[in-house]
Records
---
Amino acid sequence: MRLNKPAKSPAGYDNMSLAIYWHRDDLRLHDNPCLHRAVNGYDRVLPIFIFDPRQFEMLPLGFRKTGYHRFIFLKDCIAALQQSYQEKGGNLLVVLGRPEEILADLLREQQADIVLAQAEVASEETTVERSIAAALQTEFELIWGKSLYHRDDLPFGFDEIPATSKSFRIRAQKEAGVRELLPTPDRIDCPELTDWGKLPVADELGFRREEALDFQAPVPAGEKAALERLHYYTFETRLVEKYKWTRNKSLGIDYSSKFSAWLNRGCLSPRQVYHTVKRYEKEVKRNISTWWLIFEVVWRDFFIFSHAKYGDKIFRAGGIKNRETDWKHDKELFDRWCRGETGIPFADAHLRELWETGFMSNRGRVNTASFLTRDYEIDWRWGAAWFESQLLDYEVSANWFNWNTQATEIYYTNPVHQSMKYDKNGEYILSQLPELAALPFPFFHAPWLTQEFTGVEPVKSYPQPAFIQKKWGRSIGNIRKEIPEEYEDLVAKKG
Ligand SMILES: Cc1cc2nc3c(=O)[nH]c(=O)nc-3n(C[C@H](O)[C@H](O)[C@H](O)COP(=O)(O)OP(=O)(O)OC[C@H]3O[C@@H](n4cnc5c(N)ncnc54)[C@H](O)[C@@H]3O)c2cc1C
């Protein structure tokens, strides 16, 4: 494949070395180990991002591996990265195709010395890495940059990663330490290409017109937006000091950091988060919330390194422990779940938000994963695939490990109980399910009770649950207790 004419070397540049830097989920210039290596080890850098059509394929479940929200967010991150390179005097080559077919050709055409890339842990990505390595051999170098702790600093090899996040955290904190930030280059010298490519449009990746949703991403794309949010969440608003008490909410943007989409596309370095929070603790305030935010970022590391340890076992039906399982494969119920039409408002509100915006709170993820696997008893891998398709912050280790744990390890989460506990006044539910706005408190928690108490049919546009679980009985009883006397009277009169 011919991508470009060989770069014309300006007079006197003939003997200059050139590194191709293949961007993957490291879409930033700050604290970037690959870029640091490229800029400091070579005279010029040719940064490239490759849109790989395999990532956008339609799955047998009827949705794409990477859905439309994720495509748009990624594309916007690439546009932002391209602009950042241009501001530094360089540029970013954008190509559509398979990395293993493109990079070797590009290396030869550009007479480059090496291809540099961030190392990944998941098998799809490492398979691609292996075929590039087979073609390029010593001209291909993988560099670690995904996590807070550097893999070489951990006091254990991948095979010895502790089984619990607590022991991982304690030992890593004590024995590894977080490295200092790498400087952002002032200037980036790139070769002079005749064509820097262009961002693909949706139909080049197979999207049909009806898949092109009009959606509002909860956070803007790119590195600058990520760094602004980090500043906002810490020094500007001091929200970080309240994090522990707000993190279980679902409504709005400020109850949690919202760093995830940027962290996982690599627009934000986890070390940047760490060092900013540490500076905040020193200069402003240190409390349980500032501690907790770092604790969560270390969870992310725990899943990345555990994935490196267990490999593809994290994708097995029985999870990493290979538990006996008998998952159902009821596509109709699964589709109701994906669309947020289960008839259980707390679950549906979260599922609709995911579908409409590409984001869902942690409370929502815990509840909807539990609902799919413990109430519908549907194969958790279907749910994980739906999250993979939809989540702007999708990260292979965090997603599949959290699902794995939720389906096979963690206690059941009762969605009726959680609804009253986390959204008693229904602000979140009603923000996502406006069709329930006509129902007074507490009926929007359990709309199927409406007819019994008011004689009014439940909202027609909102579905009845497929079934009511016996184990929700006590929580439904608690909702009944909240029903005002006037409704009790109405039922008594009718009786
Ligand atoms: C079923 C399920 C699937 C999930 N899938 C993903 C996923 O694909 N990508 C993802 O980043 N997180 C995932 N999570 C974890 C968590 O829900 C999100 O990280 C969090 O909601 C993102 O919002 P935030 O950035 O505001 O998080 P905050 O609460 O502000 O936390 C700060 C950061 O800590 C990390 N973090 C927090 N909780 C977790 C966790 N449980 N596991 C790993 N990292 C965590 C994230 O990087 C996050 O950005 C999943 C959780 C569940 C239960």
---
Amino acid sequence: MPDLHYDTLLVRREGLTRDLPPGDNEDLRWVTNSSTLIFGDQDAVLVDTFTTIEQNERLIAWVKDHDRRLTHIYLTHGHGDHVYGIGQLLEAFPDARALATAGTLAEASLQTEDDYRVGFWGRLFPGQIPDPVLPELLDGHHFSLEGHDLRVVEAGHTDTQGTTALSVPAIRLLVSGDVVYNNTHMYLAETTRETRTEWISALRTLEALEPAHVIAGHKDPDRDDDPRNITESIQYLTDFNDAERTTTTPLELYETMLGLHPRRANPGSLWGAAKLIKGTP
Ligand SMILES: [Zn+2]
């Protein structure tokens, strides 16, 4: 069997929560999205797409540069910033199939409705969100690339409902979607203390796979894909659960977490969660 390789494209965009308290983190108010191409001699599989029309055009050009036949686009979860590029990608690569689990499909169905796509994402990125296309339901939890097994790992409710990661045992690669974050504030606005505890269990399941490379859906471009990103994500959630217990106002929760994690990208995500969980000040 031919060897497999992978390559990751990162794009940077503005965060979703933009009314942050004043502070010395102006230089961190952005977030990246990652898309990973796994490829053999002839074929390739892409994991996740991007938010805006322009970002997805860049993704298409980057995939074409790899000069492989794109067979599948796998979507790790249903959030718009990962699934909105499906239509553009399928148009550019008509032989490819976009695949997702039932959990991803359920969330993607919500995110492609006008309420959400136009009312939420469209307001934050006016005129930039592509037309909605849903993936097909993946039958089972495996598919293959040039004879190598690609395994879907169900992670349950992490930063949203029904999330997954994609494991490529042949090269000890884990494309984690938003189950793991790389030096970026984790998106907790859809979580409760109970789901954050489930999220920690999902991270331990990923840790037990002993991957050598872990590619987070949101990644600090200056950091590598070391599996310690799993441990750091567990620490972040543990710290948040503690801080949520010991603080009262959104600002207290936000500042307590920033004290522990001052240099993660996208503090707006933390502020958004703090306001939701503690009530808007
Ligand atoms: Zn995301």
---
Amino acid sequence: MKYVQNMVCLGCGEQYPVEPINVCEMCFGPLEISYDYMSMKNKVTRESIQNGPPTIWRYIDFLPVNPDFIVDIGTGMTPLIKAKNLGKELGLTNLYIKNDGVNPTFSFKDRPVSITTSKAKEFGFEVLACVSTGNLMGSVAAHGARANMETYVFYPNTLEKAKILQTSSYAPTLIALEGTYDDANRFCTELSDNNNWAFVNINMRAFYAEGSKTLGYEIAEQLDWQAPDHCIIPAASGELVTKIWKGLQEFSEIGIISPPENTQLHLAQAEGCSPIVQAFNNGTSEVKPVKPNTIAKSLAIGTPASGSFAIESLNQSHGTATAASEASIIENIKLLARTEGIYTETAGGVVISVLQELVKQNKIQKDDLTVAFMTGNGLKTQEIFTDTIAEIKTSPKLKDFEKSLLEHKNKTLVST
Ligand SMILES: Cc1ncc(COP(=O)(O)O)c(C=O)c1O
Ligand SMILES: [Zn+2]
């Protein structure tokens, strides 16, 4: 908290003290945490960061958290892997995969939720809650358990079974709502007004949003203190895109990296829910709501709260926005698994599809330093694969095995 100044309205600039509020009283704009970058210069350095723990908490000087209240489940410093095999298939020599699906609850959501839960403890809340497209609720339930808080998670009743099963193991109260995420979100906003709960992505949204900045810091540090040429980032509410950009800007602001002048952000959505892509490609920052119909359920937000801010980040970075065809998502989850041994969820499939498209359109050149963000783990969306498994069925006898293997090889030869 050393460097936190206040909360500022992104709409009109009105300033507020740091409290669990999320909209401006004057213009209803969202609030954002502001920092005293001047004081950070020379005090927060590459060395001071490297001396921190191997988690997101190494970036505590950039976060609105009092160290006495940290709720830590070991989030962050996930692998940034040079993707030589996938790069070769796509004709890229400098492609990296940020594998954030290996966080404690298997998605990047542990970043925003660690910050919010810590802040909720500091504010003295006893109840933690969220409205989720699937990954957030697992993270909130885990952090709630760790923080000894009563926890409620709300979600549309069409989510993947694995996400619900995982979440239930942390023993929160699970509420499956009829309708879409956007219906659930409307209901939870009303609920939040009537309860003194820390709703991580409603009244605590300003703190929640800050957590995603750590992905920006981390890739810059892992790339030996530089920003990449391209970031391909999945979007639902649009917050992650905006905050990776804010992270890179902040590092540059205090002199930890050079200004990210050559960094382009590329926003990725699935065709069945691409309101931000549509707005961006129509040359407007006014995002029109859509009704989601996509297998990328984690990205199925039809009314993205931070859509216009994500577009602003794309414009500032001379970036792009692309929708992945639904059919390509499964194909590209498999491509990444087959080439790099990384198993990502549908949001990651969307990112690889968009990466391919950008290469095809020459928007990413052969030697460009490129980072593709895998934000969730493939184990969470297994059900999309159930009828595509080609296994050899045999008895554990040498003769039977050899015969079956031969049959299998012949079959794969015929089908390829
Ligand atoms: C796996 C995954 N990736 C990306 C996102 C997009 O995050 P944001 O809402 O910040 O755009 C989500 C959101 O739930 C997600 O679950
Ligand atoms: Zn305002």
